[in-house]
Amino acid sequence: MRQGDFDWAHDAWSIVTYAVWVLLMLGLLTETRCWRERAFFALVLANFSLGLALVIWRMAPVGAVREVRLVSAWLWAIAAFVSVVITVSSGGSTRSIQ
Predict the structure, then answer these.
(1) I need a labelling partner for 62 at 20 to 30 A (CA). Which of 4, 9, 43, 85 fits?
(2) For the chain, the helix, strand and coil percentages under 3-state DSSP, each to the nearest 5
(3) SS3 sequence, 30-76?
(4) 25, 79 contact by CB (below 8 A)
(5) Sign of the CA dihedral with 18 first, then 19, 23, and 29 last
(6) Over the stretch 11-67, which tens digit does the pLDDT of each residue have?
(7) Spans of all domains in the chain
(8) Apex CA 49: angle with CA 48 and CA 52, to 5°?
(9) N-to-C CA span, the chain
(10) How much is the pLDDT for 4?
(11) Residues 29, 32, 34: CA angle, nearest 5 degrees
(12) How many whole angstroms from its chain centre is CA 79?
């Protein structure tokens, strides 16, 4: 494994970009009433939060970055699955969160 395999950008634009995505996901999470969509937005929020943490953490060990990237890959895979479930499920059977 080479150092460059798991490097993470630490520039100001990356920090701002991840922060905007985290705020957007928080907003979407609070605005939706469907529990399936909330699950999706929560997974994406967790993923962008991990990214924001790595962007801010300049001295992260390579092993920690590698582990976070693996967790991130799993979160994206689960979010993709939830997205497919939301897409193919009938709209009439979804229940709102009260």
Answers:
(1) 43
(2) 75, 0, 20
(3) HHCCEHHHHHHHHHHHHHHHHHHHHHHCCCCCHHHHHHHHHHHHHHH
(4) no
(5) positive
(6) 899 899 999 999 999 999 999 888 888 999 999 999 999 999 999 988 888 888 889
(7) 26-87
(8) 85
(9) 49
(10) 53
(11) 115
(12) 8
